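Case 419 in the screening queue. Each case pairs one protein sequence with one candidate compound; here the compound is pyridoxal-5'-phosphate. For every case the pipeline is the same: read the inputs, emit a complex structure as tokens, and attach any notable structural observations.

Predict complex for case 419.
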Amino acid sequence: MSDVELDPEIADILHGEAVRQAETLQLIAAENFVSRAVLTALASPLANKYAEGYPGARHHGGCELVDAAERLAIDRAKRLFAAEHANVQPHSGSSAVLATYAALLRPGDKVLAMGLQYGGHLTHGSPVNFSGRWFDVIGYGVDAESGIVDYEQVRALARAHRPKAVVCGSISYPRHIDYAAFRDIADEAGAYLIADAAHPMGLIAGGAAPSPVPYADVVCATTHKVLRGPRGGMILCGEQFAERVDRAVFPFSQGGAQMNAIAAKAVAFREASTPDFRAYAHQVVANARTLAGGLAAEGLTVTTGGTDTHLLTVDPAPLGVDAATARGRLAAAGLVLDTCALPWADARGLRLGSAAVTTQGMAEKEMARIAALFATAIRSEDAGRRVRDEVRDLAGGFPPYGTPGEGTTSAVPAPGVMV
Ligand SMILES: Cc1ncc(COP(=O)(O)O)c(C=O)c1O
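Case 419 output:
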């Protein structure tokens, strides 16, 4: 695109956000930096195309090319995750969960899912979400000591309540999920098994985490996070659920598909099928483990004693601060992350992820440095400014959108410029 004047106020915001992302460290476990190819598809003329329905059966004319994009996305998703059927239209992870429930359940049905206080997502039964309003959701937990899913408790609850669906998946569980155990529990209760793999989906694509596809009736996920695609959702299932899932997405819960996002999903699935992405996914886990080891050595309590994935949760209490204070100090130092539930207390902890910093090219050495900076920033408010300079310096060596002047210039314009 050229000779188009960008809204100057929004241009300033885009520029400011690009600077913020470049000068701080994104340790939010759900975030990543997509490729320029993904950004290009998102900002393409496909953004203007209306396409209600599915390829070959649209309610609008002129869909030949977007049909081809959606078919590519579907084929690539099926191949990448060895799934019989893929729906790539959900606008978000939450939309994917909504459509999955709509495909399998009726309002009032019982659902057994991880309790929110242990790391369940809003769509797993929160009273402020459709899931908690329209379904009778029973929560399972993790062992208070180990932080590991209490599979015996899940089995006992399934036996007692006979839910229509069992949901496995979490926003903050750092270990691999035992999908075979969940399948067994669901079968015993005569329940569907739904895997909400929003977090590990990129690790699954890269062969760094086990896949729920052979076990779950329906797998829903986001295409952002470790998978490094556009913000959006997807659903995978066997042929026997294909029609129900498709109808639950459109026309039941969505209208026109966002064809620019679907093209960007196709791009991301292609990228995720490369050897480079496999190496990336394994490096993400190696980095999270180094980060966990470094934080434990600094005195923080690491939930479950470590991680199998891109994310870890820690309790800052041994350093004498609560999670909200710690997050504030870390933010002031340029370390951006979230608070989260802790298995053993009402007090909250901190959740970190390694996906974005790994995309920037950081490895174990940088993770060790981040762990040290992290602990220094938490221990003392006064250290914040010094740590902030060091964080800026570290981030500056790994620009998220490439180095201007080296052919991979920043994805966003400078304030007020013509693009
Ligand atoms: C397990 C899980 N499910 C669903 C979602 C919802 O995704 P979205 O924010 O795209 O609606 C998330 C997002 O973090 C998630 O972690």
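Case 419 observations:
- The CA atoms of residues 88 and 242 lie 12 Å apart.
- Residues 275-297 form the longest helix (23 residues).
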